[in-house]
Write a structure and sequence with these properties.
Blueprint lengths: L3 E2 L4 E3 L4 H4 L9 H9 L6 H4 L14 H16 L3 E3 L5 E8 L2 E11 H5 L3 E2 L6 H14 L1 E2 L3 E5 L3 H13 L4 E5 L3 E8 L2 H12 L4 E5 L1 H17 L11 E8 L5 E2 L1 E5 L7 H5 L3 E7 L10 E6 L2 E7 L13 H11 L13 E5 L3 H10 L5 E4 L5 H9 L10 E2 L10 E2 L5
Parallel strand pairs: 6-11, 8-12
Antiparallel strand pairs: 1-5, 2-3, 4-5, 4-10, 5-12, 7-21, 8-11, 9-10, 13-20, 14-18, 14-19, 15-17, 16-17, 16-19
Helix pairs in contact: 4-6, 6-9
Length: 414
């Protein structure tokens, strides 16, 4: 069973929440973040991507960037743009997008649950991305971005959340990026906090939906703190990290599409035919409507590409659409073996639409694009339960959790 705890959040002044909250650091380039931060001194990007306040020529991994993040966090607190709650509690975080809502509990979760695999992963991480967040968390002595966790929903938890929302006003209620409405409630009533904590204690496992690098980094900083402070209680804040927990049935995975900059063999379609049925769709963008079907964009034309029955493997990983693409096309035809490191491939989140794929190919930057049918939440949970790993960039979640609404201080001794 998992350990989900209340905590004292550092969070925005109610009048500034919509100005402080920002898109996550890892969905924006430094240039995009710099542009957003230029006109908004309150943006949390000044903390999460502090290179925007330094010379453009400076590496985003320079020591000065992490020190600037620490200084900016301190400045936001001194100016009372951010404040720390006096009492520990839970927070309800609701996001509404395109008529669909998902509601999670903001809490601190235990690094020991991750180590013991009660918090399960479905992706590998890259060392350089881990090191970046390790240095950021370590220097700021805080988890500044939440980790997006999910679990198989429990009626008791859903009812407690619904009852609280119905009888209390949110502390934040605003619309932000991509017209997503964000609402937050603060639960600091002792009895309800205890009830929720007990309810989560009966949840057998949590699953990382998004934030594998943040999780690895938070855990490694926590373990580092244990070495430095061996006599501290196992309830010390550095033994926990900032998370938002959503029931799986409320979540939606969008497509995570691929663009390639590769020479196209003259017999490309002939190479596809043994494994796929191909239907030309002309110039009208084609979005896959079922599993084992892909859209292919090449030379200004779209094609439906359906995997033949004998192409689909029976195991939980091999049967994923991204695995079929990887095994039968990327590897065999284009010799792309490691999509995490091969610079001939890039990934486009489904929120950007098929027009973005056309744009990238038509510009000449890439030669071919693949529109994917997304995996389901059941796929994700099954892979994690089997202790397997999905191919990289298999899942794209929307809406994105904003950064800056909650900070979890590690409270390390000076």
């Amino acid at each position: 069973m998992v350990n989900v705890r209340p905590f004292q959040a550092v969070r925005p002044n109610e009048k500034l929440a919509d100005k402080i909250a920002s898109l996550p650091y890892d969905v924006l380039s430094s240039a995009e973040a710099r542009e957003l931060g230029k006109t908004n001194p309150y943006s949390f990007l000044h903390i999460d991507k502090a290179e925007i306040d330094l010379e453009e020529s400076l590496s985003p991994y320079d020591d000065l960037v992490y020190l600037k993040a620490k200084d900016n966090l301190r400045a936001f607190l001194e100016k009372e743009w951010l404040k720390k709650d006096v009492r520990a509690g839970f927070y309800i975080y609701e996001l509404q997008m395109n008529g669909r809502a998902q509601t999670g509990i903001v809490a601190s979760t235990a690094i020991d649950d991750y180590i013991s695999q009660k918090i399960k992963k479905h992706e590998f991480t890259r060392e350089e991305k881990e090191l970046d967040r390790i240095r950021h968390v370590d220097t700021c002595d805080a988890n500044t971005s939440p980790i997006f966790l999910t679990y198989r929903g429990k009626a008791e938890i859903n009812e407690l959340i619904a009852q609280f929302k119905a009888s209390h006003e949110p502390i934040y209620d605003f619309k932000s990026f991509h017209e997503v409405t964000h609402k937050v409630w603060h639960i600091d009533e002792n009895e309800l906090v205890t009830t929720l904590e007990s309810a989560f204690a009966s949840v057998p496992a949590l699953y990382i939906a998004d934030g594998h690098h943040r999780t690895e980094s938070a855990v490694k900083v926590g373990l580092k703190r244990r070495e430095v402070y061996p006599n501290e209680s196992n309830l010390a804040e550095f033994n926990f990290f900032l998370s938002v927990l959503f029931p799986a049935e409320e979540l939606e995975i969008l497509d995570y599409n691929r663009v390639l900059n590769v020479p196209i063999p003259s017999d490309f379609f002939e190479q596809l035919k043994p494994h796929f049925d191909i239907t030309e769709k002309g110039t009208t963008p084609f979005k896959p409507s079922k599993p084992k079907q892909m859209g292919l964009y090449l030379n200004g034309r779209w094609y439906a590409v359906d995997a033949k029955k004998e192409t689909i493997k029976g195991d939980v990983i091999g049967s994923l659409d991204v695995s079929i693409l990887q095994n039968e096309i990327l590897t065999k035809i284009f010799d792309i073996q490691d999509v995490r490191r091969d610079n001939r491939i890039d990934f486009v989140g489904g929120i950007r639409g098929l027009a973005e794929l056309e744009k990238r190919v038509d510009s000449g930057e890439f030669t071919i694009a693949f529109a994917m049918f997304p995996p389901t939440m059941d796929d994700l949970l099954s892979v994690a339960d089997a202790n397997e790993i999905m191919p990289p960039k298999s899942t794209w979640f929307e809406p994105k959790l904003l950064s800056g609404l909650f900070v979890h201080e590690l409270e390390s001794k000076a």
